[in-house]
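Hey, resending since the last one bounced:
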Amino acid sequence: MELRLAPTTMPVSVRPAMVPRAAAGNPADDGIDAGFSGALKSALHAVSASQNQAAGLQREVQMENPAVSLEETMVSIQKAQIGFQATLHVRNRMVQAYTDIMNMQV
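The structure tokens again:
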């Protein structure tokens, strides 16, 4: 199964910057995080933030905070789990591609 996402169909947290870095007011980067590595880095940060949010909500539910609902916590945990699984699949595909390239005969 092959999954390709155009920048307009990607989740907002994973989308690569649509505006060049220099035009966005950050000339120090000059497009260093552009392309696949930037998208992967932002995806990893988004997954990490999602996991941290889920852990925080879980902690609040365990402390019986009335402002945090169990439903919201469960949805957040599932989102974090799905994001982690997607990241794991990307990592596995990258390792497999690297292994295939290394095993090519020159």
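Residues 19-24 have pLDDT under 50 and may be disordered.

Sorry for the duplicate.
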